[in-house]
Amino acid sequence: MSAFCAGFPTPLCYADGMSRAEPKRRTRLDPAERRRLILDHAAEVIAQEGVSALSMERIGREAGVSKSLVYNYFPNLNELLSELLERELRRLRRMQGQAAEGAETFEGLVRAVTHVYLKYIDERGLLLERLQAEPHVSAVHDPTEYGRETAVDYLTELVMRHFELPRDIARAATDISFGLPASAGAYLHRHGMPRPVLEDLTVAMIIGSVTALKTDYMARTKPLRPEPRIRPVD
């Protein structure tokens, strides 16, 4: 036994006098946690190197598991990418919903939702963009499309009450305004405008467009004469 090992009966020391590293043991994780970690490592590779750099073998290597274990969770790469995209969009929509719940004014609502969106796009937008560019993964190329109908229904009710607009006008305005944050996110990546400045600009455009409907559009389209009352037939 070597001088190093003398008096130290540890797994690192053996009778032949050689110091050997203890074999690395795989941490046993809950299946849901293992699935999450596999997706996390896939997201990291995509964000840094693109989808083309990804394979089941590469994911296993990054996650510290075998390729066969990755296949136990995902039958193929497209299934994995689709679930990753779904997770990212669901997370974005959830964060926007939480931000909206804390708003006390209409401007506060618009700003909170816009802030969350632009921050997310700034930090993880490249991942979303690369996932949505894959035709076998998603037919949707706009993150705001995810859960859009439910969000539009909710916001339409708020716009109707706050601005006293007819439902059809309020819904159209709400639906159209959904495109502004998406355009702002794309502009952020292309031109690098400071995010706070772009956030202020986007909020002003959304609020300004809805306010204009109340003060301008409704006034210009209001009938000059009331509709004639139809007398009941005796």
TrEMBL record:
PROSITE patterns: HTH_TETR_2. It comes from the Bacteria. Pfam families: TetR_N. One of its GO terms (molecular function) is transcription cis-regulatory region binding. The keyword Manganese does not apply. Residues 32-92 form the HTH tetR-type domain. Keywords: DNA-binding, Transcription, Transcription regulation. This is HTH-type transcriptional regulator AcrR. The lineage of its organism: Bacteria, Pseudomonadati, Pseudomonadota, Alphaproteobacteria, Sphingomonadales.
